[in-house]
Design goal:
about 450 residues, alpha+beta, Aminopeptidase, Alpha-Beta Plaits, 2 domains, 6-stranded mixed β-sheet, 5-stranded antiparallel β-sheet, globular
């Protein structure tokens, strides 16, 4: 009989954070992360370490806890998790998304995977280290940050711009990674050493208003916008086999046929279509610039031909791509419509960290002790995280955690921003042990 690894303290803290429902819809007044900051301050208590709060926008608070190192020349390690979650449609869920129920060893709720599980376990590890009398050479920081789900405007972005001395770190660990990818040689644990950039764009499509009862030969902005969306959806940019992806494939030990397909830019798209849905989507995103129309606003009344439609497009850029590269791709995708629309974009390009670092080595040693026969493999984060702000400030930033075999990759990949988000209690225990041991190895 196998004894399941559990950590009741981590489970309880995660449940409370889920129930706080810090839902971030992108507006300045959403999020209410102060609820979880208050919870975390109460949980951490006062154990001989510093705690500081930052609230640049009412309700949008972040908490920073610090165990000061004894050697100013030693590295600083930050454990960083966000406290906000994305909106949810309860109709698509099997259980209350903010009930934090435990069913068959799984904690259900919005944020269970993205990423309250890690935010909670980092807090538990930090508190235990402090209670143990941990006095490291290097400084340990714990940052529970607001607004990650909306570009970090009131969270990490603001902190790096306005409070860099407080949050500066040599090493940063945040989401995500550490799910077990089975191979004949043992589990491989992906570490997000780089992430795609964003080039989120608003496309303004203009037309001429008129009466809806007389559509013949009119200049309908909605019709033109529909063609813009169709062209973006049909656009097929070429695959790019970047350094991180190549190193990942070579480290995984895939069968020759699969390895060759993963490294062949002319074959990889079709090969992705043969894979399980979650895996195929992820691998496609690792090797392609993606253009995803997500939001449309337009029209004023049923009987009025619209003269303006605004489209929002989620564009994710690969390492090494510039804004000019993406604008050229938009021109290619839209063809003659490119000069008929107005495009405004943010330019938040890809970031990456080196692999040959003491932090990588520590993660490898600790993970090897916790997961038998495992090894780390580099991976590309296809979404965005707050790591990008810290990388740009000079930090080595990795996305990691540690998950049990019970949380299969297919489930893990599809639960981000999806329905029925949940995490098993063994994964919470593993992550808690990971953070504590890595801090001791890197800083002691």
């Amino acid at each position: 009989m196998t004894t399941r690894l559990e950590d009741a303290e981590a489970v309880d803290l995660l449940q409370q954070m889920i129930r706080n429902a810090c839902v971030n819809d992108g507006t300045p007044e959403s999020g209410a992360e102060t609820r979880s900051v208050d919870l975390l301050r109460q949980y951490l208590g006062s154990g001989g370490f510093e705690v500081e709060e930052f609230e640049p926008q009412p309700g949008r608070a972040s908490l920073l806890a610090k165990i000061e190192g004894t050697d100013p020349t030693a590295p600083t390690l930050m454990l960083m998790g966000h406290t906000d979650v994305v909106p949810v449609n309860p109709d698509g869920w099997s259980r209350d998304p903010f009930g934090a129920e435990i069913v068959d060893g799984m904690v259900w709720g919005r944020g269970a995977v993205d990423m309250l599980n890690l935010t909670a376990t980092q807090a538990v590890a930090f508190k235990r280290l402090a209670a143990s009398g941990f006095r490291p050479k290097g400084t340990l920081l714990y940052l529970a940050v607001a607004d990650e789900e909306a570009l970090g405007t009131w969270g990490a972005h603001w902190l790096v711009d306005h409070e860099l001395d407080a949050v500066r770190a040599d090493y940063v660990l945040t989401e995500s990674g550490g799910f077990q990818m089975p191979t004949p040689h043992g589990p491989r644990l992906p570490v997000m050493v780089a992430e795609k950039g964003t080039f989120w764009s608003k496309i303004h499509v203009h037309g001429t208003p008129g009466h809806g009862s007389q559509p013949f030969n009119t200049d309908n902005a909605l019709v033109r916008a529909a063609e813009v969306v169709r062209r973006l959806d049909a656009y097929r940019p070429e695959a790019q086999i970047g350094d991180v992806w190549r190193r990942h494939v070579e480290a995984m030990g895939y069968p020759d046929e699969m390895r060759d397909a993963f490294l062949d830019p002319s074959a990889i798209r079709d090969f992705c279509a043969t894979l399980p849905t979650g895996l195929g989507r992820l691998i496609h995103a690792c090797t392609h610039t993606t253009f995803t129309p997500t939001v449309a606003h337009g029209g004023t009344k049923t009987n009025v031909i619209p003269d303006h439609v605004e489209l929002e497009v989620d564009i994710r850029t690969l390492p090494g791509q510039s804004g000019d590269d993406i604008r050229a791709m938009l021109r290619e995708a839209l063809g003659d419509l490119y000069d008929q629309v107005e495009i405004e974009s943010n330019e938040d390009l890809s970031t990456a960290s080196a692999i040959d670092t003491p932090l990588w080595d520590a993660l490898s040693r600790v993970s090897g002790r916790l997961v038998a026969d495992s090894a780390l493999v580099p991976f590309l984060m296809v979404g965005g995280t707050d790591n990008r702000y810290f990388r740009r400030s000079g930090a080595v930033g990795y996305g990691y955690g540690l998950f049990s075999k019970r949380l299969g990759f297919e489930d893990y990949a599809t639960m981000f921003h999806g329905n029925d988000e949940r995490v098993d209690v063994e994964s919470l225990a593993l992550s808690t042990l990971l953070w504590q041991a890595v801090a001791e190895e890197v800083l002691a």
